[in-house]
Design a protein that fits this description.
Layout lengths: L7 H6 L2 H4 L3 E4 L4 E3 H16 L6 E5 L3 H13 L3 E4 L17 E4 L13 H16 L4 H7 L8 E7 L5 E7 H10 L14 E4 L6 H13 L4 E2 L16 E5 L1 H5 L10 E6 L6 H11 L3 E7 L3 E8 L7 E2 L3 E6 L2 E6 L10 E6 L2 E7 L3 E4 L2 E4 H10 L3 E11 L2 E10 L2 H9 L12 H13 L10 E5 L12 H5 L5
Parallel strand pairs: 1-9, 3-4, 3-5, 4-6, 8-10, 10-11, 11-12, 22-23
Antiparallel strand pairs: 1-2, 6-7, 12-13, 13-14, 15-16, 17-18, 19-20, 21-22
Helix pairs in contact: 3-4, 3-5, 7-8
Amino acid sequence: MKNNDLSLHQALFENFDFFKDRIVAYSKDKAYTHQDFTDSIKALSLYLLKDKEIRSIAVCIENAYFFSIAFIAAMYAGKTPVLLGNITSHTFDAIESKADMVISDLNINRIAVPSPAFTEILEIAENEYRALSEIDLSDFNDKYFSSLDDNSPIVFYTSGTTGKSKRVNKSLKSMQIDISCSYELYDSLETIENLRLISTVPPYHMYGLTYRIFMPILRHLPMTTYMLRYSEELSNYTEPLVLVSSPAFVKRLDTKIKAPDIRLCISAGSPMPDDAALCFYNWCNCAVTEIYGSTESNSMAHRDNRGDRPLFIPFSVVNFVKTEEGYKLDSLMSDGYSRIDDNLEFEGEHFRITGRKDKIVKIEENRISLTQIENLLKNNPLIEDAVALVITRNNRTCIGAVCVLKDSALAEHIEQHKDKSTDNNFTDKKSVVMALREYLRGYLPAVAIPRYFRIVNRIPVNHMGKRITPLLEELFND
């Protein structure tokens, strides 16, 4: 493996004079140099150092350049950066138990911890830094920016099997090893002239942090500050590209537009359909490089998918150990985590994924807890019991929900009038479903909100009293 000793600190400050004028990031109307980047990191870090009560900082910033500054500055200031994953209106309900401060480019107010806007505190920090720069800064550089501990913690929050927000503790070291492994995907990206890294994913979860933030910084690849949202935007690029994408973006790609010069397309979060991978390859002559990994494990394996159903290849620092329950993980970047939630089927040293062991599913790059959906529904005053499951209709994967209402008379009324609709409050299935969807929007990303609902008098079970998925799926066959 090449460059297996990659270091964030060295990427920022070693050979500084050589890198200082290189472009780190492009916005739509501005370019930022390596010196701009490191000066902003130093300024914000010194600003954050002043508040000793702040120990952890949730970074909720979509702009990749600004995110990088806040994230790295927090580490140099001795604070723990916290990534909250998907951002919804209820993300910050219990924020005081997760972080002491939120730095964001969103309009966040009235939450339980300080929540300054990134651009505002950066302006203050840079003004103070400019004043300091009139004196000798060598003491500050020697004290605060001479090294960065590889064991610096990073905290992620993601869905757990219980449906509650799950804390995952990671380290800077595991992220650095992960980017070292990226040389196994493409070992000469740095030699491609005018290369840019573009992305369709935000930076505040493991996949985004790894390939949207750490890879361009540690491998000195210029990144765009913004996210691509529509495939038509790809036609704006004449430069060679690294595309860090979601499977959903690739599946929706409009191949009628002219293909840009994509040298590497990375995808993660959920399996890439073979037909979408084939279509992408035929369009731009570039395979979709799928990453198999998780928040807990970092990257575990990869495959170049051209629609030919390739097997996954473990990264060189990763081993899969056979157990009675399947496989466990032995990896230099797993921070002691060994559980694998998928069923793996090996052919020699390579493998395919045959399904998940728990109630976490992945739909359009989102990790969705069926247990969380069920618990949210059960907490709604309309619902007595609920089951969530994965439904596939017209080659589209989504969530279905089977619900038992607390008001049995209402349930009976809905059953009797299921082919009719009225506008009265909660007197028909449509009004109940609309109320449930509106309630769930406060807690879940759009892709996790059930697309189909079934209102029943009782949840179907088998003769042993167990809920069996095929019995539940039959309710959605009409």
